[in-house]
Specification:
There is one protein chain. This protein has 529 residues and is mostly helical. The chain has two domains: 335 residues, no CATH class; 119 residues, Rossmann fold (3-Layer(aba) Sandwich), CATH 3.40.50. It contains 22 helices and six strands. The protein has a four-stranded mixed sheet, with helices on one face. Strands 1-2 form a two-stranded antiparallel ribbon. Helix 1 packs across helix 2. The longest helix has 32 residues.
Length: 529
């Protein structure tokens, strides 16, 4: 709550709807909760971008966060409020998961707490409040824990836990699916003695079992994305990836108020925040200097994952990345290569935990029994200082949320109408495409088919349709509306004046095939005859 303040003070009326991605994600969690109890096989046949197919796959499906928020949505809590609760919940669960894993791996509660703070509240996560998936990384530490158990070797059920953690994290975000796939491979690769050679059959079977389970469970969720990439070319060009790749300056960017005011503002503009923090770097450096990062197989996994993430964050600037992009289907869907740097921050948080554990061992080494209470009290003070340092470096509160009041009541009327197909105007596309985000948010009141849409992808059919509907209320636009079965049109009066002028607004009243149903709050609802 501290790192997201003042969000917890009014979850119903604060938002990041200044960023249309937040509106899209709010709609997505509401859609998932709406459709799963009614027609789960229609999950990807979302109502936006009508009449296109598989439209949920135009962006992230956010299945796991949506399931976490579904009970609140079913009880009638508004989607924006649930979205805000899920931000706080994701931060809490992510920190808690890393704390538990690092406490188990190091035997140090202090190591777990510091690692959890650094993992959940890093510069990257705290600059991505509009992107709910960025806060929900709670299953990645559990994945690594289960992978270590399988390599130990563990029992067959450890392989099932590995598959479960992988699936849950993958169903939070497609980006995270790609990141954790590469992370799991490189983590196992730096421990060859644990799975390669004679006597390692059980480990190999466990890894294969986990991979098979994950593949079977994830296949139905990946299929729509495959269909779109095959039929509509929904892949990212290498030129587009290059534009969203990191440079060395990104690793100096943080929105933490302390560093931003002092020096980081010189690097911030249009960059991805990937600065780990001085405390994190120092503690992780302790694990490197002491050799723990190389000797301990779990720490070595963390180091390898971080090196992988940092390297891939440079995108085509990394030799071989273009080849990987062309030949690995998962990688071809990644546009923002700079986000690979999140793995680097996760790595630093784990190595910092090992650094704290090493410092704790040195602190208590050769301490007499009589001196232990005093040393323990002093150590607690040291840990509190470390935690405060990590928090002070990361904190950027108060976060700049924007007021949100309500979705206009006129959309409740649409929910009561049968067989509605809706188009909203102005009809945005091209450079103004993101302004459809509020239309998508409005759709949470009814989930009626909506011709408008917003996501990270536009089909060629949508672009063609938008060119025609952008001239509304022309004869061509009216013909297009009737051709695709639109029954109602919503006109936002002030925005329409900005879009087409008062003459354009006046022409709407002259169209015989548009019957005015009602006007409320500067929004007109028409029936298309």
């Amino acid at each position: 709550m501290l790192h997201s303040w003042p969000l917890a003070s009014d979850v119903s009326h604060l938002s990041r709807f200044d960023n249309d991605d937040a509106e899209l994600n709010t709609w997505a969690i509401a859609w998932v909760a709406h459709i799963l109890p009614r027609a789960p096989l229609q999950l990807f046949e979302a109502p936006i971008f009508y009449p296109d197919a598989h439209t949920l796959a135009y962006s992230e499906h956010l299945l796991v966060p949506a399931l976490l928020g579904a009970p609140l949505l079913w009880m009638g809590v508004s989607p924006p409020a649930v979205h805000n609760v899920l931000i706080i919940l994701g931060l809490a669960l992510s920190g808690w998961a890393m704390c538990l894993v690092m406490q188990r791996w190091t035997g140090s509660t202090a190591a777990g707490v510091i690692a959890g703070l650094l993992y959940a509240f890093n510069a990257h996560v705290l600059t991505r409040f509009p992107h709910l998936q960025a806060q929900h990384v709670e299953f990645f530490p559990l994945l690594l824990y289960a992978l270590d158990r399988v390599l130990a070797p563990g029992r067959r059920r450890d392989a099932a836990w590995l598959a479960g953690a992988f699936v849950l994290q993958a169903l939070c975000s497609n980006y995270l699916l790609v990141f954790i796939t590469f992370a799991a491979v490189v983590a196992a690769a730096v421990r060859p003695a644990d799975w390669w050679g004679a006597g390692r059959r059980e480990v190999q079977l466990g890894l294969l079992m986990a991979a098979a389970i994950a593949a079977v469970v994830l296949a139905p969720f990946l299929w729509p994305y495959y269909v779109l990439s095959r039929d509509q070319g929904m892949v990212r060009s290498i030129e587009e990836v290059a534009a969203y790749s990191a440079g060395w300056r990104d690793y100096l960017v943080t929105a933490g108020r302390l560093h931003y005011a002092w020096w980081s503002h010189n690097f911030y503009e249009s960059r991805t925040a990937l600065f780990p923090g001085v405390a994190a770097i120092t503690l992780a450096g302790g694990a490197l200097v002491s050799g723990t990062a190389f000797r301990d197989p779990r720490a070595r996994m963390a180091l390898a994952i971080g090196a992988l993430g940092v390297a891939l964050s440079f995108g085509p600037g990394l030799p071989g990345y273009t080849w990987l992009h062309q030949h690995l289907p998962l990688l071809s869907g990644i546009r923002n290569a700079a986000r690979w740097g999140w793995l680097g921050l996760a790595s630093v948080s784990m190595l910092a935990g090992y650094g704290v554990a090493g410092l704790e061992r040195v602190w208590f080494r050769s301490t007499a029994v009589a001196d232990r209470p005093r040393r323990s009290r002093t150590w607690l003070a040291v840990c509190l200082v470390l935690g405060l340092m990590a928090t002070a470096e990361a904190i950027r509160t108060p976060v700049g949320f924007t007021p949100f009041t309500r979705i206009a009541p006129i959309y409740d009327r649409l929910a009561a109408e049968p067989d509605v197909v809706l188009a909203e105007f102005p009809f945005y596309s091209g450079n103004t495409f993101n302004q459809n985000g509020r239309y998508v948010l409005n759709n949470t009141r009814s989930f009626r088919p909506l011709v408008n849409g917003y996501s990270g992808f536009q089909s060629s059919a949508y672009r063609q349709r938008a060119r025609t509907l952008g001239s509304f209320p022309s004869a061509e636009a009216m013909a297009e509306l009737k051709a695709i079965g639109v029954t109602h049109a919503v006109v936002h009066v002030d925005d329409m004046v900005k879009w087409a002028g008062r003459d354009g607004l006046a022409r709407i009243e002259q169209v015989a095939d548009l019957e005015l149903v009602t006007e409320e709050d500067g929004i007109r609802l028409y029936r298309v005859r």
